[in-house]
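Margin note: ligand = thymidine-5'-diphospho-beta-D-xylose.
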Amino acid sequence: MKLVVTGGAGFIGSHFIRYILNNYPDYRVLNIDKLTYAGNIENIKDVENHPNYRFLKADICERGIEEAITDYDVVINFAAESHVDRSIQEPEAFLKTDVMGTFNLLEISRKKGIQRYIQISTDEVFGSADEGQMFYEESPLNPSSPYSASKAAADLLALSYYRTYKTPVIIIRSTNNYGPNQYPEKFIPLFITNAIEDKILPLYGDGKNVRDWLFVLDNCRGIDVILHRGKEGEIYNIAGGNEKENIFIAKKILEYLGKPDTLIKFVKDRPGHDRRYSISCEKIKRLGWQPIVSLEEGLKQTVGWYKNNEDWWKKIKNGEFLEYYRRYYEL
Ligand code: NAD
Ligand code: TDX
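Resulting structure:
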């Protein structure tokens, strides 16, 4: 099988490419990534000389990428602007990449007769779940941020291509991923790296917002199952089954690092902050998938990775991230 993977220098995309090359020796992968602030070629360095891997530095919005996509079977679109806080500050890039980029890939897939187009989406498109409420694949979309609204728009566009042109689209909606190589603007890596440096952990609001944590390799296994056994025109949720309040995760990170809870500082809440995410993933479970990494095991592994890879994140935190962080906190 020949796969085009977009956003493969980012967090989940890089894990997915490595997973595919390790598990399917005869598959070929073309990674198309613009290398934005979040794209890091270091994430995928170990496979750069793999005979079945090719990298193209390009924007998914460019019409010109069509040429490179000749003779591929599958397109899997991970490329996106992915951070909610940035979407609140500067939404335009989200509309460009997450909506128009998806549009461009759908057009190319339609023209090229791609056999499968997988749109990597998120549980955030459903918006906030009340206590006891759970969203299913067919639940209405109710996004809260410019990020999740852009992702929801992309999902609807992709589904329209299935209905109108029979483009073989599948949508995958995962819960919050965590693991090695996640850009340190996101909650778990930000808190781990701040704690290592004895800096404060800025917890939004009352710290009781709930996220459902999914270890990145369990997500990759789920995407693999859907790539091979999913049905065209369908949506599949992938959930970690680990719904936790943010304060619980913050305290666990401090416990694993042997740091005091006094590093936690409650700060101003995120505008439009979704209280809770909760999705059912019975549909993918019927295809034979289930998460295998427990939250304790995954979080300990992740903390260990950031402890052992200070070079990776210090370069980021002293560079682009520092500028972003200062802007964000108006320092
Ligand atoms: P990330 O921000 O770590 O990586 C995104 C990658 O896309 C980067 O390598 C970046 O350079 C690339 N990119 C951005 N704009 C591009 C463009 N215009 N053209 C080409 N490449 C571009 O993101 P992530 O956390 O790995 O998320 C990957 C996908 O999974 C996204 O679509 C996101 O919406 C979705 N998702 C993420 C999570 C999560 O918890 N991280 C959960 C559910 C869904
Ligand atoms: O400094 C922080 N303090 C804090 O309390 C940050 C960065 C986050 N938080 C809270 C906000 C959320 O309740 O932690 C929770 C997780 O925050 P993020 O890591 O920003 O993730 P979230 O907003 O849930 O969105 C993520 O999950 C779904 C990803 O960024 C998306 O790409 C994905 O679609």
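The longest strand covers residues 116-122.
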